[in-house]
Design brief:
Layout (H helix, E strand, L loop, with lengths): L15 H19 L18 E2 L2 E15 L3 E5 L4 E5 L5 E3 L16 E11 L7 E10 L6 H4 L8 E8 L5 E6 L2 E6 L5 E3 L16 E8 L9 E9 L26 E8 L5 E6 L2 E15 L2 E3 L10 E8 L9 E10 L1
Parallel strand pairs: 4-7, 5-7, 10-13, 11-13, 16-19
Antiparallel strand pairs: 1-2, 2-3, 2-6, 3-4, 6-7, 8-9, 8-12, 9-10, 12-13, 14-15, 14-18, 15-16, 16-17, 18-19
Length: 340
Protein backbone atom coordinates (compact mmCIF):
# COMPACT_ATOMS: atom_id res chain seq x y z
CA UNK A 1 0.00 0.00 0.00
CA UNK A 2 1.09 3.64 0.06
CA UNK A 3 4.19 4.87 1.85
CA UNK A 4 3.43 6.22 5.33
CA UNK A 5 5.16 9.09 7.09
CA UNK A 6 5.27 9.66 10.83
CA UNK A 7 3.30 12.74 11.85
CA UNK A 8 4.64 14.04 15.14
CA UNK A 9 1.38 15.44 16.50
CA UNK A 10 0.91 13.23 19.52
CA UNK A 11 3.00 15.41 21.83
CA UNK A 12 1.77 17.69 24.60
CA UNK A 13 0.86 21.09 23.22
CA UNK A 14 3.91 22.72 24.75
CA UNK A 15 6.10 20.78 22.29
CA UNK A 16 4.23 21.82 19.18
CA UNK A 17 6.36 24.89 18.46
CA UNK A 18 9.52 22.81 18.97
CA UNK A 19 9.84 19.08 18.41
CA UNK A 20 6.36 18.44 17.01
CA UNK A 21 6.50 21.47 14.73
CA UNK A 22 9.80 20.24 13.35
CA UNK A 23 8.27 16.83 12.69
CA UNK A 24 5.28 18.38 10.97
CA UNK A 25 7.54 20.60 8.88
CA UNK A 26 9.58 17.57 7.82
CA UNK A 27 6.41 15.78 6.77
CA UNK A 28 5.29 18.74 4.67
CA UNK A 29 8.66 18.93 2.93
CA UNK A 30 7.89 15.41 1.74
CA UNK A 31 4.36 16.47 0.88
CA UNK A 32 5.51 19.46 -1.15
CA UNK A 33 7.80 17.16 -3.11
CA UNK A 34 4.87 14.84 -3.74
CA UNK A 35 2.73 17.71 -4.98
CA UNK A 36 5.37 19.13 -7.28
CA UNK A 37 4.99 22.88 -7.63
CA UNK A 38 1.67 23.01 -5.79
CA UNK A 39 2.05 25.38 -2.78
CA UNK A 40 0.36 24.12 0.36
CA UNK A 41 1.53 26.39 3.14
CA UNK A 42 -0.36 29.25 4.72
CA UNK A 43 0.27 32.46 2.89
CA UNK A 44 1.19 30.74 -0.38
CA UNK A 45 -0.27 32.19 -3.56
CA UNK A 46 -3.13 30.17 -5.00
CA UNK A 47 -2.30 28.85 -8.47
CA UNK A 48 -5.77 28.91 -9.93
CA UNK A 49 -9.42 28.42 -9.07
CA UNK A 50 -10.03 26.87 -12.50
CA UNK A 51 -8.44 23.61 -13.73
CA UNK A 52 -6.81 23.59 -17.11
CA UNK A 53 -8.59 21.85 -19.99
CA UNK A 54 -6.87 19.36 -22.28
CA UNK A 55 -9.00 17.88 -25.07
CA UNK A 56 -12.14 16.18 -23.77
CA UNK A 57 -10.84 15.80 -20.25
CA UNK A 58 -9.53 18.10 -17.55
CA UNK A 59 -6.13 17.37 -16.00
CA UNK A 60 -5.03 19.45 -13.05
CA UNK A 61 -3.45 19.53 -9.66
CA UNK A 62 -6.10 20.18 -7.08
CA UNK A 63 -7.67 19.58 -3.71
CA UNK A 64 -11.02 18.32 -2.50
CA UNK A 65 -12.59 16.86 0.62
CA UNK A 66 -15.52 14.71 1.62
CA UNK A 67 -16.67 11.64 3.53
CA UNK A 68 -15.01 8.28 2.96
CA UNK A 69 -17.66 5.87 1.65
CA UNK A 70 -16.04 2.72 0.33
CA UNK A 71 -12.39 1.89 1.03
CA UNK A 72 -11.01 -0.71 -1.40
CA UNK A 73 -7.50 -2.14 -1.75
CA UNK A 74 -5.75 0.66 -3.63
CA UNK A 75 -8.55 3.20 -3.95
CA UNK A 76 -11.54 4.58 -2.08
CA UNK A 77 -14.72 6.48 -2.84
CA UNK A 78 -14.98 10.00 -1.44
CA UNK A 79 -18.44 11.59 -1.23
CA UNK A 80 -18.08 15.34 -1.75
CA UNK A 81 -20.88 17.88 -1.36
CA UNK A 82 -21.95 17.42 -5.00
CA UNK A 83 -20.80 13.99 -6.19
CA UNK A 84 -18.69 10.90 -5.51
CA UNK A 85 -15.03 10.74 -6.52
CA UNK A 86 -12.76 7.74 -6.98
CA UNK A 87 -9.44 8.34 -5.22
CA UNK A 88 -6.52 6.13 -6.26
CA UNK A 89 -3.41 5.76 -4.12
CA UNK A 90 0.04 4.44 -4.98
CA UNK A 91 3.41 3.84 -3.37
CA UNK A 92 4.17 7.57 -3.23
CA UNK A 93 0.96 8.59 -1.46
CA UNK A 94 1.56 10.25 1.91
CA UNK A 95 -0.99 9.84 4.72
CA UNK A 96 -1.47 12.29 7.57
CA UNK A 97 -3.72 11.59 10.56
CA UNK A 98 -3.42 13.64 13.78
CA UNK A 99 -2.64 11.53 16.81
CA UNK A 100 -1.51 8.52 14.74
CA UNK A 101 2.21 7.72 14.60
CA UNK A 102 2.13 5.72 11.35
CA UNK A 103 -1.05 6.46 9.38
CA UNK A 104 -1.68 4.28 6.34
CA UNK A 105 -4.34 3.37 3.83
CA UNK A 106 -5.85 1.08 6.47
CA UNK A 107 -6.62 4.19 8.55
CA UNK A 108 -9.35 5.15 6.07
CA UNK A 109 -12.70 4.09 7.51
CA UNK A 110 -16.19 4.61 6.18
CA UNK A 111 -17.70 7.80 7.57
CA UNK A 112 -14.45 9.64 8.29
CA UNK A 113 -13.82 13.05 6.75
CA UNK A 114 -10.75 13.17 4.52
CA UNK A 115 -8.96 15.75 2.38
CA UNK A 116 -7.12 14.81 -0.79
CA UNK A 117 -4.53 16.66 -2.85
CA UNK A 118 -3.09 15.35 -6.09
CA UNK A 119 -3.69 14.94 -9.80
CA UNK A 120 -7.34 15.30 -10.83
CA UNK A 121 -8.75 13.91 -14.08
CA UNK A 122 -12.38 14.70 -14.84
CA UNK A 123 -14.09 13.78 -18.09
CA UNK A 124 -16.31 16.35 -19.74
CA UNK A 125 -18.98 13.65 -19.93
CA UNK A 126 -21.42 13.82 -16.97
CA UNK A 127 -21.61 10.01 -16.97
CA UNK A 128 -17.87 9.67 -16.31
CA UNK A 129 -16.91 10.31 -12.66
CA UNK A 130 -14.08 12.53 -11.55
CA UNK A 131 -10.95 10.65 -10.49
CA UNK A 132 -7.99 11.65 -8.35
CA UNK A 133 -4.53 10.16 -7.94
CA UNK A 134 -3.65 11.16 -4.38
CA UNK A 135 -0.32 12.68 -3.40
CA UNK A 136 -1.57 13.46 0.13
CA UNK A 137 -4.51 12.03 2.06
CA UNK A 138 -5.34 13.90 5.28
CA UNK A 139 -7.61 11.89 7.62
CA UNK A 140 -9.68 13.61 10.29
CA UNK A 141 -10.25 11.19 13.17
CA UNK A 142 -13.61 10.96 14.90
CA UNK A 143 -13.81 13.19 17.97
CA UNK A 144 -12.94 11.11 21.03
CA UNK A 145 -13.99 13.71 23.58
CA UNK A 146 -16.69 16.39 23.66
CA UNK A 147 -15.77 19.65 21.94
CA UNK A 148 -16.37 21.64 25.11
CA UNK A 149 -13.87 19.49 27.02
CA UNK A 150 -11.06 19.57 24.48
CA UNK A 151 -10.99 23.29 23.73
CA UNK A 152 -10.66 24.11 27.44
CA UNK A 153 -7.59 21.97 27.96
CA UNK A 154 -4.00 22.10 26.78
CA UNK A 155 -3.65 18.73 25.11
CA UNK A 156 -2.96 17.01 21.84
CA UNK A 157 -6.29 15.20 21.36
CA UNK A 158 -7.41 15.94 17.79
CA UNK A 159 -10.76 17.64 17.32
CA UNK A 160 -12.89 18.55 14.29
CA UNK A 161 -15.45 21.37 14.38
CA UNK A 162 -17.57 23.07 11.74
CA UNK A 163 -18.74 26.67 11.80
CA UNK A 164 -18.71 30.05 10.09
CA UNK A 165 -15.51 32.07 9.69
CA UNK A 166 -15.32 35.64 10.93
CA UNK A 167 -12.96 38.26 12.35
CA UNK A 168 -10.27 37.20 9.90
CA UNK A 169 -6.73 38.12 10.94
CA UNK A 170 -3.23 37.53 9.64
CA UNK A 171 -2.80 34.16 11.33
CA UNK A 172 -6.30 32.99 12.12
CA UNK A 173 -10.00 33.68 12.45
CA UNK A 174 -13.01 33.17 14.71
CA UNK A 175 -15.10 30.07 14.03
CA UNK A 176 -18.70 30.42 15.20
CA UNK A 177 -19.98 26.93 16.00
CA UNK A 178 -23.18 25.58 17.51
CA UNK A 179 -21.52 25.56 20.95
CA UNK A 180 -19.77 28.95 20.78
CA UNK A 181 -16.91 30.87 19.19
CA UNK A 182 -13.48 29.25 18.88
CA UNK A 183 -10.37 31.12 17.75
CA UNK A 184 -8.57 29.19 15.00
CA UNK A 185 -4.82 29.66 14.60
CA UNK A 186 -3.03 28.64 11.39
CA UNK A 187 0.67 28.45 10.57
CA UNK A 188 2.95 27.42 7.70
CA UNK A 189 2.14 23.75 8.32
CA UNK A 190 -1.64 23.97 8.06
CA UNK A 191 -3.12 22.05 5.12
CA UNK A 192 -6.06 23.42 3.11
CA UNK A 193 -8.68 21.62 1.04
CA UNK A 194 -11.30 23.25 -1.19
CA UNK A 195 -13.09 21.79 -4.19
CA UNK A 196 -12.38 23.58 -7.47
CA UNK A 197 -9.27 25.36 -6.17
CA UNK A 198 -5.93 24.21 -7.52
CA UNK A 199 -3.89 25.24 -4.49
CA UNK A 200 -6.10 26.45 -1.62
CA UNK A 201 -4.42 28.35 1.18
CA UNK A 202 -5.22 30.85 3.93
CA UNK A 203 -6.01 33.54 1.37
CA UNK A 204 -9.04 31.46 0.32
CA UNK A 205 -10.63 31.78 3.78
CA UNK A 206 -13.17 34.61 3.80
CA UNK A 207 -15.53 35.97 6.44
CA UNK A 208 -18.91 34.24 6.32
CA UNK A 209 -17.55 31.04 4.76
CA UNK A 210 -18.38 27.61 6.18
CA UNK A 211 -15.18 25.97 7.45
CA UNK A 212 -14.43 22.63 9.06
CA UNK A 213 -11.24 22.63 11.13
CA UNK A 214 -9.25 19.69 12.42
CA UNK A 215 -6.78 20.71 15.11
CA UNK A 216 -5.89 20.49 18.78
CA UNK A 217 -6.35 22.77 21.76
CA UNK A 218 -4.19 25.88 21.65
CA UNK A 219 -1.65 26.70 24.34
CA UNK A 220 -3.70 29.70 25.48
CA UNK A 221 -7.10 28.00 25.22
CA UNK A 222 -9.42 28.23 28.22
CA UNK A 223 -13.09 28.25 29.03
CA UNK A 224 -13.44 31.94 28.27
CA UNK A 225 -11.25 32.02 25.16
CA UNK A 226 -11.20 28.58 23.50
CA UNK A 227 -8.66 28.19 20.71
CA UNK A 228 -7.51 25.52 18.28
CA UNK A 229 -4.21 25.12 16.43
CA UNK A 230 -5.29 24.02 12.93
CA UNK A 231 -3.83 20.93 11.31
CA UNK A 232 -6.18 21.23 8.33
CA UNK A 233 -8.99 23.43 7.02
CA UNK A 234 -11.81 22.19 4.82
CA UNK A 235 -13.21 25.25 3.06
CA UNK A 236 -16.87 25.06 2.05
CA UNK A 237 -20.04 23.33 3.20
CA UNK A 238 -19.20 19.77 4.28
CA UNK A 239 -21.06 16.79 2.83
CA UNK A 240 -23.43 14.83 5.04
CA UNK A 241 -22.26 11.37 5.98
CA UNK A 242 -24.78 8.57 5.56
CA UNK A 243 -22.31 5.96 6.78
CA UNK A 244 -21.17 7.02 10.23
CA UNK A 245 -21.35 10.05 12.55
CA UNK A 246 -19.56 13.09 11.19
CA UNK A 247 -16.29 14.16 12.81
CA UNK A 248 -18.01 17.12 14.45
CA UNK A 249 -20.41 14.97 16.49
CA UNK A 250 -20.26 15.44 20.24
CA UNK A 251 -19.46 12.20 22.06
CA UNK A 252 -19.77 11.05 25.65
CA UNK A 253 -17.92 12.13 28.75
CA UNK A 254 -14.36 10.93 29.43
CA UNK A 255 -14.06 7.93 31.77
CA UNK A 256 -14.30 8.69 35.49
CA UNK A 257 -11.16 8.70 37.58
CA UNK A 258 -10.76 8.41 41.35
CA UNK A 259 -9.44 11.97 41.54
CA UNK A 260 -12.69 13.25 40.05
CA UNK A 261 -14.86 11.57 42.69
CA UNK A 262 -15.90 13.99 45.43
CA UNK A 263 -17.73 12.30 48.31
CA UNK A 264 -21.37 13.26 48.96
CA UNK A 265 -22.25 15.73 51.67
CA UNK A 266 -20.29 18.70 50.33
CA UNK A 267 -21.72 22.20 50.45
CA UNK A 268 -22.23 24.34 47.34
CA UNK A 269 -21.18 27.95 46.84
CA UNK A 270 -20.20 30.41 44.12
CA UNK A 271 -22.52 28.85 41.55
CA UNK A 272 -22.13 30.09 37.96
CA UNK A 273 -23.33 28.73 34.62
CA UNK A 274 -20.06 26.82 34.21
CA UNK A 275 -18.88 25.96 37.73
CA UNK A 276 -19.42 25.88 41.48
CA UNK A 277 -17.27 25.46 44.59
CA UNK A 278 -17.50 22.20 46.56
CA UNK A 279 -16.58 22.33 50.25
CA UNK A 280 -16.30 19.42 52.67
CA UNK A 281 -14.46 20.26 55.90
CA UNK A 282 -11.31 22.08 54.86
CA UNK A 283 -11.41 20.57 51.36
CA UNK A 284 -12.34 23.15 48.71
CA UNK A 285 -12.68 22.17 45.04
CA UNK A 286 -13.66 24.09 41.92
CA UNK A 287 -16.10 21.91 39.97
CA UNK A 288 -16.30 22.67 36.25
CA UNK A 289 -19.59 21.95 34.49
CA UNK A 290 -19.32 20.59 30.97
CA UNK A 291 -21.82 20.18 28.13
CA UNK A 292 -22.01 16.47 29.01
CA UNK A 293 -22.43 16.92 32.81
CA UNK A 294 -25.56 15.17 34.14
CA UNK A 295 -27.36 16.19 37.33
CA UNK A 296 -29.30 14.05 39.79
CA UNK A 297 -31.35 15.11 42.81
CA UNK A 298 -32.10 12.30 45.26
CA UNK A 299 -31.47 9.83 42.42
CA UNK A 300 -33.79 11.53 39.93
CA UNK A 301 -32.53 13.35 36.83
CA UNK A 302 -32.56 17.11 37.27
CA UNK A 303 -30.84 20.23 35.91
CA UNK A 304 -28.10 22.62 36.98
CA UNK A 305 -30.79 24.85 38.47
CA UNK A 306 -30.99 22.43 41.42
CA UNK A 307 -27.52 23.55 42.51
CA UNK A 308 -29.14 26.61 44.11
CA UNK A 309 -31.93 24.70 45.85
CA UNK A 310 -31.94 25.40 49.62
CA UNK A 311 -30.18 22.83 51.79
CA UNK A 312 -28.86 20.53 49.07
CA UNK A 313 -25.48 18.86 49.39
CA UNK A 314 -23.35 17.48 46.60
CA UNK A 315 -20.91 14.84 45.41
CA UNK A 316 -19.46 14.25 41.96
CA UNK A 317 -17.88 11.81 39.56
CA UNK A 318 -15.55 12.99 36.82
CA UNK A 319 -11.88 13.64 36.17
CA UNK A 320 -9.16 15.93 37.50
CA UNK A 321 -8.81 18.99 35.29
CA UNK A 322 -5.33 19.23 33.69
CA UNK A 323 -5.01 22.77 35.10
CA UNK A 324 -5.58 21.52 38.65
CA UNK A 325 -2.85 22.07 41.24
CA UNK A 326 -2.43 21.15 44.90
CA UNK A 327 -3.42 24.67 45.88
CA UNK A 328 -6.23 25.00 43.35
CA UNK A 329 -7.92 21.64 42.91
CA UNK A 330 -10.28 21.45 39.90
CA UNK A 331 -12.64 18.65 38.85
CA UNK A 332 -14.44 18.34 35.53
CA UNK A 333 -17.79 16.81 36.45
CA UNK A 334 -19.39 13.95 34.55
CA UNK A 335 -22.15 13.53 37.14
CA UNK A 336 -23.30 15.82 39.93
CA UNK A 337 -25.18 14.02 42.70
CA UNK A 338 -27.40 16.28 44.83
CA UNK A 339 -29.09 15.29 48.07
CA UNK A 340 -31.88 17.29 49.65
Amino acid sequence: MGVTRNEVRNQPRGHVRGRAAAGRAALLVLAIGALGTLPISAGATSVSRHPEHTGNARHSRGALFGVVETPGTDSFTLATKTHSVTVTVDSSTIYVEPGVISPAFASLKSGLTAGVRGAITASSSPSSPEAVTAAIVFISPTNREPTSWIVRHHGHTPLSVTGTAGNLGSDGFDLTTASGVIRIHVDAHTLYFEAGVAAPNFQDVINGETITVTGCSGANSDGQHPALEAYALYIGTPPTSTVAPATTTEVGAPPNTSGGELPPGGSISDVTSTSFVYTLGDHHVMVELESYTKFFLDGVTTTAASLTSPGVTVGTSGIVDPASTSGNYIVDANHVYLTS
